[in-house]
Automatic annotation (TrEMBL):
Keywords: Antiport, Cell membrane, Ion transport, Membrane, Transmembrane, Transmembrane helix, Transport. NCBIfam families: matE. The chain crosses the membrane at residues 15-36, 56-81, 101-120, 132-152, 164-188, 194-213, 234-259, 279-300, 321-341, 353-373, 385-403, 409-429. Pfam families: MatE (PF01554). Belongs to the multi antimicrobial extrusion (MATE) (TC 2.A.66.1) family. Multidrug efflux pump. It is a multi-pass membrane protein. It is found in: Cell membrane. This is Probable multidrug resistance protein NorM. GO terms for molecular function: antiporter activity; xenobiotic transmembrane transporter activity. It comes from the Bacteria. PANTHER family: FMN_FAD EXPORTER YEEO-RELATED, MULTIDRUG RESISTANCE PROTEIN NORM-RELATED. It comes from [Ruminococcus] lactaris ATCC 29176.
Length: 439
């Protein structure tokens, strides 16, 4: 494990420019393979495409648990590295593999038993239920790659190695993309597996990615007596990330239900926004990932001035990057919507909505960066509060209130939510600075 104080001495902008691009590229490849996956399944079967939509929240939950645990390990390792306790950091890393395996076993068992009931709650179609169970059981039973890769990648990132996780995720995505048509349609002598083939392609890619990061990220597990303390701290630091990703799923569901009261086209327009969001949020998501170990390292080293500098630089970079998204949503909404839909009503509704959503990007940087900042310094409660307030107390209730005035006003939900969350985040940050000044 490297003991270099790169995070503590290098120019902040140079750190972010070095470690963020690999994460962005990996996330871009992941976004592309998700779209390709849906493309091939949709070509094979409409019921299969519906099944993918139903199983998507389950996959998001798996990712939330795996990545959230990895973020907790990442943050704790960065803390110990920041105070020069290399052995402690290695013990935290060694806790990661057993945790990943336990999460996999529990999730696989629960999903295998409950998937038929979950599918029945989501649809009345026997064909769709069959596809949900077929696809879902494969991706859950063989999710060992997802859980272990998520944790091992975060271990490497805590050490400053962004390149290996990037290579792993790209390799996994490429394997998935190549296997998708071969296994779904039965090409080149492969069996025609339909939607089950898509599931096999998905877990194959995840396992390939896990194997690539395993060599560098596996550490000997610590003594059994150490586990309770490390696990408690890992989840104190990782719970905000788990809540953040889980809440994301719930608020999308809530907004969909509100828009369903207007028309299917309104729901479709919101769905198309989330397709484009995947691309525009890649830079911001990479910044969120990269600043956690940097801030945690410097906070542990009691360098509050440098923590403030990391936050300032990440906010400036985030605003510059997201401003490009604002320009696209303000000036090219029709063209963006037409990529996926030729329905004139969808395009009309979406064009109106995209104008409001584009404005929200300006405030979204602060509303999403502040929770990560507090997570990195160990203020898990403040981080969780900001996430819950944004997704539970603001998004869905405000969406419902604005929708009472008409569909056009519903879209105000986005800028108003991001602005209010940012105001609360600034308040929390000012209180943090006052507290540090008095210590």
């Amino acid at each position: 494990m490297e003991t270099s104080d790169f995070y503590g001495t290098e120019k902040v902008s140079r750190i972010l420019l070095k470690i963020a691009p690999p994460v962005m590229l990996a996330q871009l490849i992941q976004a592309l393979y998700n779209i390709v996956d849906s493309f091939f399944v949709g070509k094979y079967s409409e019921t299969g495409l519906t099944a993918l939509s139903i199983i998507y929240p389950v996959q998001l939950l798996m990712i939330a648990l795996g990545v959230g645990t990895g973020v907790g390990i990442n943050t704790d390792m960065a803390y110990y590295l920041g105070i020069g306790k290399k052995k402690k950091a290695e013990e935290v890393a060694g806790t990661g593999t057993p945790l990943g395996l336990i999460l996999w076993i529990i999730f696989a068992a629960v999903c295998y038993v409950t998937l038929p009931a979950y599918a029945g709650m989501s649809t009345d179609s026997p064909e769709v239920i069959r596809d949900v169970v077929a696809y879902g059981r494969i991706v859950c039973l063989f999710s060992i790659g997802l859980f272990t890769e998520g944790i091992w990648s975060k271990i490497l990132q805590a050490e400053g190695d962004m390149r290996t996780p990037m290579i792993a995720q790209i390799a996994g995505a490429v394997v998935n993309i190549i296997l998708d048509p071969l296994l779904i349609f039965g090409m080149l002598g492969m069996p025609e597996m339909g939607i089950s083939g898509a599931a096999v392609a998905t877990v194959s890619g995840q396992i390939v990615a896990a194997l690539i990061v395993m060599k560098k990220a596996w550490y000997r597990p610590p003594r059994r007596s150490c586990y309770s303390g490390y696990i408690k701290r890992i989840y104190q630091l990782g719970i905000p990330n788990i809540i953040m990703q889980s809440a994301y799923t719930l608020y999308i569901l809530g907004l969909n239900l509100i828009l369903a009261g207007f028309s299917d086209q309104a729901v479709t327009a919101l769905g198309l926004y989330y397709k484009w969001q995947t691309f525009f949020f890649i830079p911001l998501g990479a910044l969120q990932t990269c600043i956690v170990p940097v801030i945690s390292y410097n906070y542990a080293a009691k360098d509050i001035k440098r923590c403030r500098l990391v936050l300032k630089d990440s906010l400036i970079m985030g605003e510059c990057l997201m401003f490009l998204g604002t320009l696209c949503f303000e000036f090219l909404p029709g063209q963006m919507l037409a990529v996926f839909s030729g329905d004139s009503e969808v395009i009309a509704i979406g064009t109106n909505g995209f104008h409001y959503i584009g404005i929200s990007f300006i405030f979204m940087v602060t509303s999403l960066i502040f929770p990560v900042f507090f997570q990195a310094i160990g203020y898990a409660v403040k981080s969780s509060v900001l996430t819950i307030v944004r997704t539970v107390l603001f998004f869905v209730p405000l969406g419902y209130i604005f929708s009472r005035f008409g569909l056009q006003y519903f879209w105000l939900t986005f800028p108003v939510t991001e602005l209010l969350t940012s105001v609360i985040g600034v308040g929390f940050y000012r209180n943090f600075l006052k507290r540090e000044q008095t210590i």
